Every structure is written in C-alpha cells, then in structure tokens.
C-alpha cells in the first residue's frame, strides 16, 4: 500500500478496497486492449490480491 499511496492516482481515489478493485479491473481491460506489458502493475495487483485474501 505504500507504493499505491505514493502514486498520483491515490489523491483521486479514496482508497476503499472496492474502489481499488474497480480501478484495477478497468486498467486490466485497457491493458488487454493495448497489449502493453505492465510488469510493475502486475506485481502490485499480485500483492494487493494476496493482502486482500489474507484478510
């Protein structure tokens, strides 16, 4: 979450889990359409999912 809160987007998103999941879903769709590799975002998603699944 430290990395997320350093990103400029964190000022526009309130940070609730639901909103972060929605943002991730939309970004995932865009990523599939453009086929641009996003290794850093992929790692953030894995970490976020792991943290959510632990709770």
Short description:
The protein is mostly helical. It has helices at 2-6, 17-34, 39-54.
Description:
The chain is mostly helical and 55 residues long. Helices cover 71% and strands 0% of the residues. It is built from three helices and no strands. The longest helix has 18 residues, at 17-34. It is globular. The model has no long low-confidence stretch (mean pLDDT 81).
Tell me what portion of residues adopts beta-strand conformation: under 5%
Mean pLDDT level: 81
| Shape by Cα distribution | globular
Over all CA atoms, what is the radius of gyration? 11 Å
Number of strands: 0
User: Distance between termini?
Assistant: 14 Å
The quaternary structure here is single chain
């Amino acid at each position: 979450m430290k990395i997320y809160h350093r990103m400029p987007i964190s000022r526009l998103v309130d940070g609730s889990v639901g909103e972060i999941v929605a943002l991730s879903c939309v970004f995932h769709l865009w990523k599939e359409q453009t086929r641009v590799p996003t290794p850093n975002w992929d790692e953030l998603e894995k970490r976020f999912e792991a943290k959510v699944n632990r709770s």
